[in-house]
Specification:
The protein is mainly β. The chain has one domain: Glucose Permease (Domain IIA). It has 2 helices and 16 strands. The strands form 3 sheets. Strands 2, 6, 7, 8, 9, 10, 11, 12, 13, 14 and 15 form an 11-stranded antiparallel β-sheet that branches. A 3-stranded antiparallel β-sheet has the order 4-3-5. It has a two-stranded parallel ribbon with strand order 1-16. Strand 10 and strand 11 form a beta hairpin. The radius of gyration is 19 Å and the shape is elongated. The N and C termini lie far apart (44 Å). The relative contact order is 0.20.
Length: 213
């Protein structure tokens, strides 16, 4: 089963998948949150239908102050570094192999993280859980600094180009990431544990070699 590690510490969700709690001016400027009842301030309209996201939010908005380090939630390869008007600067990482995604089937998994100030990886780079991949900001259409986190099942065509399996599902191929988080480990902590285990392994190998001389 696909397992996602929390990319930001602490892990706080400001807006969930499929919600519709952002407003803007009709010209897509001045992004603000909706009122508690879901309505927009006078003169503003719901943002997501305005940019073609008719079924609402395509990911999770995660708490992330300006300049906060955002990390890789699984081992994979950097397949995208993009700048878009709506999402700003972002990075896409795809798993090395197919993962069981429950009702969504067995597919390669792509995570896209947006609104970055700076990307810390390069196209084609292999990353591991916990590696820093970007610095948070509010580039694109955003009411404040945060990390927009998308999850998409993907496959590869004959030209080795990945594509979204569920592109026409109303969320541009995204599915809800929340059920796949392991609810126990932050990517940052996992990376630290892995480094400690590697150090122990190297020490044991050195001891064994010395005893065999």
């Amino acid at each position: 089963m696909l397992e996602l590690f929390y990319p930001i510490k602490p892990f706080r969700i400001n807006q969930r998948f499929a919600e519709n709690s952002a407003c803007s001016n009709p010209d897509r400027t001045g992004v603000v949150s909706t009122y508690a009842d879901g309505s927009c301030p006078q003169g503003k309209v719901l943002l997501y239908p305005l940019v073609g996201m008719l079924k609402g939010h395509t990911g999770l908005d995660l708490w992330a102050p300006d300049g906060w380090i955002v990390r890789a939630p699984f081992d994979g390869i950097v397949k995208e570094i993009q700048l878009e008007p709506e999402r700003g600067l972002g990075v896409g990482i795809v798993t090395h192999d197919r993962r069981d995604m429950g009702d969504h089937g067995l597919h390669y998994t792509k995570v896209r993280q947006w609104h970055a100030k700076k990307i810390l990886v390069e196209l084609g780079q292999h990353v591991k859980v916990g590696d820093p991949v970007m610095l948070a900001d509010n580039t694109g259409l955003s009411a404040g600094s945060h990390n927009h986190f998308e999850l998409k099942p993907v496959e590869y065509d004959k030209n080795d180009y990945h594509y979204n399996v569920f592109q026409n599902n109303g969320w541009y191929g995204s599915i809800d990431p929340e059920p796949f988080f392991n609810n126990s480990l932050y990517a940052e902590d996992f990376a630290s544990i892995r480094a400690q285990l590697m150090a122990v392994r190297l020490t044991l190998e050195s001891i064994i070699k010395s005893l065999m001389k």
